[in-house]
Amino acid sequence: MRKLKLLAGLIVTVMVAAGVWWLIAARAQEAALASWLDTRRAAGWQAEAEISVRGFPSRLDLTLTEPALADPGSGWAWSAPILEIAQVIYEPTFFVISWPPEQLLAAPGARATLRTDGMRASLKTRTASALPLERASLDIGRAALAAEAGWTAGVERLTVHLRAAPDAGPDNAYEFRADALRLRLPDYMREILDPAGALPPAMEAAVFEGRAALDRPLDRFAIDAGPPQLAQLSLREARAEWGALRLSVTGAMKADAAGFAEGEFDVSAENWREMLDAGVAAGVLAPAFAETLKAGLGFVARLSGAEDRLDVTLVFEGGRARIGPVPLGPAPRLLSR
Q1: What gap in Å lies between CA 10 and CA 12, rounded to an integer?
Q2: 41-53 pLDDT, tens per residue?
Q3: Which residue of 16, 80, 104, 244 is 20 to 30 Å from 140, comparing CA positions?
């Protein structure tokens, strides 16, 4: 009888201790998020949400009701009816985030509604005060974006994976892969790129895989201090398939002393002349320059024996860009800080 009483007392003690621990952890989570919202408001943002925590005894599930974030400096904004962040109490650096079927997005000059059949992300941070990112994944199923201006866009499936690579060489390096299935560009963009309607409504597939090094780590300070900038990029695979158009790119670049891109990419393009025509239609290339490119690159393509297929090297060097022997103009600037 005495042993049963001791056992019962021990069980009660453990349950009370677990309850107290859960309550402390829940209040800490709620206070941390409320403090972050306060900090954003002090910086001039709109940052609103009703916060609640559930999941006793093994989970800490944060629910944000009517969350709304808006940065007046950049013009970006987001809001939704609800946002859920799930966490198990014994693994405090792993989070699962679930978005609702409908969200509102705003960018400078545009407002749109995003509808999805499912949008979910998971992320794992390291146990440091800054919560540096260790890995993250995003999975979006059948997304449709409808703008107030009337255009629409969408994707059948989009997955993104990101993983910190501290042993990869440069500081703040991350391995990444993004896969998009049946990516549908905005209507107005398709009409510009393909005015004759010769291409399918959606890209069959697009893949982007490699490693990126940033000037600062991805951690809880990344939003407050502005997004990190790209210092190095290595592409193992980048390809897109849109009807008869095929494009693949591999290579690497880094920021030079002035912040401009420096490196080389091997580019393979099928039906590349149509791509140049699309660039002219989109206003990216001047018509005269596109004709110069066609003449110079056509010579390179004929040397390979396949005029519709182009295999060239895109070079960034000394602040300038060129494809093979054909100059393109200034190289992109990676670092401005």
Answers
A1: 5
A2: 998 999 999 999 8
A3: 244
